[in-house]
Amino acid sequence: MTTPSKILSVAAAALAWSLALCPMEAAAQHADAPSDAHDAHDAHEGEEEILVQATRSGRRVQDEVIRVDVINREEIEEKLLMTPGNISMLVAETPGVRVQLSSAALGSSNIRMQGMAGRYTQLLSDGLPLYGGQPSSIGLLQIPPTDLGQVEVIKGSASALYGPSALGGVINLVSRRPRAEAQAEMLFNLTSRDGQDITGYGALPLSPNISASLTGGYHRQTRQDLDDDGWIDMPGYERWTVRPRLFWEGDDGANLLLTAGAMTEDRVGGTLPGQDMPDGQPFPLTQDSRRYDAGLLTEIPIEGIGTLHARASVMAQRHRQHFGTDRDTSRQTTYFGEVSLGGTQGATSWRAGTALQADRYRSRAFPSFDYRYTAPALFGQVEQELSDDILLAASARADFHSEYGTHLSPRLSALYRPGAWTVRASVGKGFYAPTPFVDAIEAAGLARLEPLGNLKAETATTAALDLGYAANGLEANVTLFASDIDHGLQLQTVDTDRVRLINADGTTRTRGAELMLRYRWQSFSLTGSYVLVDAHEPAPSGAGRRPVPRTPRHTAGLVGMWEEHGKGRVGIEAYYTGRQPLDDNPYRTHSRPYFELGALAEIVLGRISLFVNAENILDIRQTKYDPLPLPARAPDGRWTVDAWGPIDGFVVNGGVRFKFGAGH
After folding, report:
1. How do residues 473-492 score in pLDDT, each as one tens digit?
2. What residues have CB less than 8 Å from 2, skipping those under 6 apart?
3. pLDDT tens by residue, 309-355
4. Of 175, 176, 548, 627, which residue is least crowded by CB atoms under 10 Å?
5. CATH of 4-661, one of 3.40.50.300, 2.40.170.20, 3.30.300.350, 2.60.40.1930
6. 432, 458 contact by CB (below 8 A)
7. This prediction's pTM
8. 344 CB-side CA count, 13 A
9. So where are the chain's domains?
């Protein structure tokens, strides 16, 4: 791990870079534009003017025919002070979205939407799969939120928009757009668990039509054994990230975005040195990751026809993993390209195009799991305005998968918006191309998994009915949702040290509801949410059905926030997680319900702000009730139970943030 002197030298260099990028002359300038292009307000309706990118229609979020939850820059800045190193908390507080630990040993997490498995959620950056066709669960923890302008969340099957990786939904991370003047910011953060974060962002115009931004970060966590049992509860890691972007805007409306990124992380878990598991042997657990990516997006108006859109990206990552005595080096690459043409004729908007995605996986130690998927596709989308209040939309995509054949993914949606009310309804179908990487395999490696047999593609039908109201500072939303998944992947035990993946003999059915209420008054806001999920699946043994493990039936949250620009913010939050059915846990069959309390305070002193944040004030920790290690190693190779609650307990973090240039 890096020494404190090295951390200080990195911090000093980063701060010097920021000062050089935005000299004091620029710091004295003040932009007349709002803090972000997406934060402007509609002067007529008093609604936030946010344009959605993930649906390809380019409409305001209020006018989208399918529901899109948008996390704006203001909310991003709030969560940036809580977890500067990753986006897990940023998306976790969206109703219907649950960030769940997928490996208590590695500390990795995935994103579950409306009760569906985390592998069905597609994670995009500006509409590009820069984190892979199936992002690893550790990837969620390797994305800093520093350079995000907004985050768009679409729940339910989005295969009609983005293909087989979006069976359960899409999270699109939209980058910040540079302003007319240079700007920069730096953040330094320390935690009570001996964690450190340094992040930096800078942007400047290069010409009247060209601008650039650069984001970088250093993140470190010391390994922690909180219950003194010899097993590392909080894995240690050291991570570096960097991402430059180049923006061009033509006078005729054409635009171009070029992006590249690099990430390196070394992560350590397992047993502490000199400690053994119940079998009398140590169990070291390490994962070293390297990821590189590049992408482009462009829009070119064609007079009399419409707009030509093109997107392309490539991602390559390598993992070196050490699970006890099992070692492996794997490589994953994703190639993506898409070209489409869209336009508007009267009350009809349309888009049609073609796409190609190729996913490659290679394992040095277990080559029988290598795969090469290629999936060309054709897609189309039509939106029809029947009146000022009624909008209908239909989209469909045909994927020609090299391994799992041809699949058609349609989606129908409708919007009715009388006055302050909105009513949305949608139904869609999609599919998912199986890979070996369900949660247990990501947590334990491939050593005990039998070669994949003749698996079928997982398919799903999802539907939602959404009722919303917004007026006079009050927002309310009720959503009813349902999904049926056929041929869902399940892990089945073969014997004491072997497992295999099978398609479930039956349908996984999920039914539920979301409720959200928000009230804003001057600088104050109060938000409450409640989610009900009823999910059942065929039992892996083939005998009947069972509740889907680690899916709480009831969750709720309440957040109060005071915020005034140029002065600071104070917030308090409370979250409730109900009982969860557990699988293969020798200590209990159901988890305990628990509350989590948090508080945040920030004071702004010109271009400098000081912040402190407390998470899990009640110090809820799973290891207070049961140990993480199992009495004996599981057939899939894991040495720990599934995480059903917080692992790190009460944590305080705090730091300082510097802003320079453009309006600061």
Report:
1. 999 999 999 999 999 999 99
2. 220, 238
3. 999 999 999 999 999 999 999 999 999 999 999 999 999 999 999 99
4. 627
5. 2.40.170.20
6. yes
7. 0.90
8. 10
9. 4-661
